[in-house]
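Milestone M4 deliverable, item 7.
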Amino acid sequence: MPHSPPSKTLAARATELARRLDMSVLVLFAALAFDLVFVTDAALDNVGPRFVDLGLFPGVFAMAACAFWARKRAAVAGVFGALTLMFCTFVIRYLGIPTYSSVLANLTVTEFVAGIEMVYFLARRARPGVAFAVISALVMGALTAVFGRGSYRDLSASSIAQTMLFGFLFLVGTVITGVVGRPRRERDPVTVERLRTMHRFTELVRGQWPLIGMLSIGVLIEFGYTYESGSRGFPLLACSIGAAAVTALSPRRPRDSILVVAGLLLLSALATPFLHPSHSYQLLGGIPPTQIVAAFGVVVNVVRAVPLARAWPRIALLSGVVAVGTILNFSQYRTGRLLTDPITLGMLATVAVLLLGIAIAIGLYLRSRDSERAQVVKSAVTDAQTSERMALARELHDVVAHHVTGIVVQAQAARMMGEKNPELALEAMGRIENAGVEALAAMRRLVRSMRGDAPAGSGEFTEQATTDLAADLRKLVDAGNHGIPTQLRLDLPANLPHEVGRSALRLIQESLTNVGKHASDATEALVLAEVVDGELHLRVTDNGSGQTHRPPGGSGGYGLVGMRERVALLHGRLSAGREPNGGWRVEAWLPLEANGETDR
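Output delivered:
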């Protein structure tokens, strides 16, 4: 009974699911999960009427559905998305449902992400005129939501300016990204290089999707903080976005990335006391949340790529920058004083060391896993190369040596009969010519397979053996290259498995070659091939004296080795030896069930 494959761990299943899903789906799921948690918490708090905030969910789910739909019907989904924004705006305004701001004022995170994805798919797949019209409708729907979901007094001049600026930047960036990624019929070198760059970027994103998801959530949260803080939050937001981008790209150049992230954190820490952000811009330990995630992620990537002995100076530098930011800003922007309380400092230091230890442990684990995976891949490549070399060696021995042996045998016969009967000598010369042509053709096929132009073993008999082994055996015997009259006894079904038929032909071919080499006094050979009890039974015998003769041209000594290898690959059995009454016997049993076929 075959063993069942080992069950996959939860992490392995999550990674496999992430590779199957598109990155845009993961981002949309993350935004939807954030809205579910945030809106539910707001609906159950003691601020305002309870459960009223749940009225945002219909619009959230409708926009998420439109974003999924856009993967197949971008234009239709975009129109429905614009109508959804406008309809939900009227409902929210009429029922007085409170809203919150994410990247754009009065728009939830899911609505913003879904709108961006619809714009992307429109720019990538729809015709230019249709894409322009539907994107304009989406922009109008977003503006209706921004200005129509609350009173005009709730929107300050800074909030309107931020909304316009962020919306314009994201719109332009998304359209450019979609247009660049449009499929092109002509694969010119520039397009090919662009596709390779996009493929590398996609692989980079898929390889660290949990980190990118956490960074994205952090950036979206800080967008909300920026609306409350006004223009004073812009520099902190810019540093957080820069740190998130560098961390996401850090696997390319991890040692330089950690220095850039440290510089951005230091710039943010030194600027915060002068910016005086409002209390609504929450800092965790004196540092914006996105920058904490970025510092954690870049440490993981550095430890994963660089030995810890060479990585620790940069990690120490980043840790020092984090300590400076905490001391400067943990209470500075609230009380105007530096953090000096030893108890608070000790607590924050403990948390920081714990996070640093977790990041280093994760990096070491990933480094060990990468090393193990590289070793497995290297071993698999070595095994594949060895298997290919062995297959070529077997093919060379079984095919080419068979034809060359026939040439030698026929040449000896022509020399002995040439003086007595010139006509027989001429007939033998014709057979020598045919055998030489076949040997040259087989050699060329092997050369093509070694150069990668054809698969190894794709010779003349190899391809035909999958359809009619009996016909191939008759052709092999009729060629008579081994020089011994041969009888065939065949009882074969028409649906033999490909590998079984190919190996059976090669086994019989090599056995007859050995008869021609070693059994010089044999006058007859017998080939038996039949299916018995789910196995292909092969038997090749001759009536030679059983005495050992030095074959013409010597013996390579790999005939039986190659036959045993072929039989072992099919989990069969091979027997070879002298018969009691003289002669030589080769017998093999090749199972059919192991190849997914039966003889019934």
